[in-house]
Amino acid sequence: MFNLNQQIAIVTGGAKGIGKGIAKVLKNAGATVIIADIDEKQGELTAQELGCAFKYVDVTSQAACQGLIDEVVQTFGRLDILCSNTGVFPQASLSEMTEQDWDFVHHINLKGTFFMVQAALKAMRPHEYGRIIITSSITGPITGYPNWSHYGASKAGQLGFMRSAALECANQGITINAVMPGNILTEGLAAQGEEYLGQMTRSIPTKKLGKPEDIGYAVCFLASKEASFITGQTIVVDGGQILPESPEAIL
């Protein structure tokens, strides 16, 4: 089960963090994986490490997203799986947030998702098959955190987009779903500092931060042929972080 042999997959934002974890799991499941990222140096290193291909992409450019899909289809013949994972999460309080701060996050997280999904659907529809998985977050759709209102709004927006987009291709053999990570130990999370990491770890019932591969396993399931009857849905991967109604509920 969940064998991805002969499947062609793109993972945007795959150079590091959650994207790298997704790429690693899909590769181990048998897929041919193309890591797409704006960070060429790290992307090439990760691709070499995992045995994947690398393509440069700026997801804020509609033409670049379409160009990436076209190049992959020209090289590999088709596209079976898109993992739209690229995202940023800079901090800014509402009192200090600028229009540029807001636009920066939404252009990458939300508009970038739109551009990649739109382009992928053009490649998938002729084959009447496709799996699209969006990396959202628990922050925004379910929880909130100070200084991340722009990030939370973008992640909630992804799910609204996903549900309507899923309906547009549900009768064409194409599914669109999302994973919602909690706190995953990535380079970006580690940059928040030890105090933040400790605080987050204490808030998780399993008493540990997730690994990028934990998100990859959920993505692999949604990317499989066995998940054909699941679309427009989300999977929370957070070690139970959203379950307690108070800190006292964590044993």
From TrEMBL:
This is 3-oxoacyl-ACP reductase FabG. Pfam families: adh_short_C2 (PF13561). GO terms for molecular function: 3-oxoacyl-[acyl-carrier-protein] reductase (NADPH) activity. PANTHER family: 3-OXOACYL-[ACYL-CARRIER-PROTEIN] REDUCTASE, SHORT-CHAIN DEHYDROGENASES/REDUCTASES FAMILY MEMBER. The keyword Cytoplasm does not apply. InterPro entries: NAD(P)-bd_dom_sf (IPR036291), SDR_fam (IPR002347). Keywords: Oxidoreductase. Its EC number is 1.1.1.100. NCBIfam families: PRK05653.2-2 (NF004202), PRK12826.1-4 (NF009468). Belongs to the short-chain dehydrogenases/reductases (SDR) family. SUPFAM superfamilies: NAD(P)-binding Rossmann-fold domains. It comes from the Bacteria. It is an enzyme of class 1 (oxidoreductase).
